[in-house]
Prior knowledge:
Layout: H1 12-18, E1 20-25, H2 42-52, E2 56-60, H3 64-77, E3 83-86, H4 106-112, H5 116-136, E4 141-142, H6 167-181, E5 187-193, H7 214-221, H8 223-230, E6 235-238, H9 256-266, E7 272-274, H10 281-299, E8 304-305, H11 310-322, H12 328-342, H13 359-372, E9 374-376, E10 390-396, H14 410-417, E11 421-425, E12 439-446, H15 459-471, E13 474-481, H16 483-489, E14 499-502, H17 507-518
Parallel strand pairs: 1-2, 1-8, 2-3, 3-4, 4-5, 5-6, 6-7, 10-11, 10-12, 12-13, 13-14
Antiparallel strand pairs: 9-14
Helix pairs in contact: 1-11, 1-12, 4-5, 4-13, 5-6, 5-13, 6-8, 10-11, 14-17
Amino acid sequence: MRSLPDINSLSLAEQVAQMVVVRASGYLFDRQIQYPQWEPPAAKLQYWLEKLGVGGVILLGGSAGEIALRSQQLQTWAKFPLLIAADIEEGVGQRFSGATEFPPPMALSAIAQRDLTLAVQYASQMGAVTAQEALAIGINWVLAPVVDVNNNPANPVINVRAFGETPEIVSQLTTAFIQGAKKFPVLTAAKHFPGHGDTATDSHLDLPVLAHSPERLAKIELPPFQSAIAAGVDAVMSAHLLIPAWDSEYPATLSPKILTQQLRKQLGFEGLIVTDALVMGAIANRYGTEEAAVLAVEAGADILLMPLEPEAAIQAVCEAVARDRISRERIRASVERIWHAKQQVEYTTTPRLSELAQPSAEVAANAIVRETQVVYGSVPINVNTPSGSLRNLIVVDNLLNCHFLSEISPAIALPKQFGYTTELVDCHTSITGFDGTQLTLLQLFIRGNPFRGSAGLTQVAQNLLKKLLQLENLQALTVYGSPYIVNEFLPALPAATPCLFSYGQMPAAQLKIMNTLFDV
């Protein structure tokens, strides 16, 4: 792999470009791009990397095998070696099919409450497996762990992505994840500073306000970040939050009082400070591309993640330097940190696909699924009914973005073997005139979903459950995703009605639920 040049040989524009990480599709061809408002076509992406010298890329979409080829392509285009990042908080398989997918981090909190040692062991394995599989396909920056304390059940964006609801458990599990990941030459990132867990607003859509005192922040929100820093986390990602106790004017991402005063000086963090995605509504809707970039650098950010218009962001920061709004020394300090980080990672030149989904990794992921399944009521269920009288009713957030379900998914395929007819609905489905006369297995796939603003029950799910209970045709309920959903539903269920819960939504979680429900 090419070595990094001397920083002094870079122009100001090249130095600023190193501070930018752009979003790109993980697919190889332009016609496969899923989010054209954020993912540039190949020619533009190559221009950003080759001519502007952009410092990194964050990938989404595609299989693990495709990402291995994509990362090679991107490194070949790049003027300087790239940081290639991904939001793989639940294993590489969360984003890129074929690799190992773990249940959401909150599942480990459930284990920690009865066996902290075992939970720490699993968190360390999760970090190590994620790091190893990331490197195998060319990803050298794992944008994890989430170290927010999710103590607000209505949180629409953190939710089960957090390692728990108390700073003590979150601190220990995130430390273990980082230590596991550090067995491999990748970067990690603790997010979202100073803590996004006690919000009811999705910062992808709007700006949440965290109205806590400095004393409360020091007691609940900050300890996991302190633990992550002590564990050697490479980067800390800012949160798009307004925290009046520290800064009543600017959100954390754009606040010198928070990024420089609190994170750098008070907590002593010396690694990379990276913004959360600058395309998110909390920032983009208020400040735009250019001003957000300049304010973030002024605040102390080293990496500008996903500015909507990267070239405009680079130019804006360069112009701020020309006007003495930002010093050359400030830019150089960030590039020096970036250079140091880039010297710590591996740049995979040959994909190692044999390292994906190894038996030991699958055993660990399946063990977490098994040990965190919860069963209420009486199982197994009786399926000795007349043909055509059983319905498998599946509710998902959005059928157009539902990677965990297909004809062969256990939640569909296993009930079909017992004679169930399958119906799928989402939050866009009208249930006017819903026929509730069939005995129904109701399956809900509901968890916090960024950009959708809902952590809880869709109105569709609420109405369906109410209707089935009124008609006494609810045979069983399964919930995949949020434990808060189960807590909402349980009081309404008859004691004997089976209710099964899994933190995971992937096929392994479905299979465990279905095997328990049908005793197979």
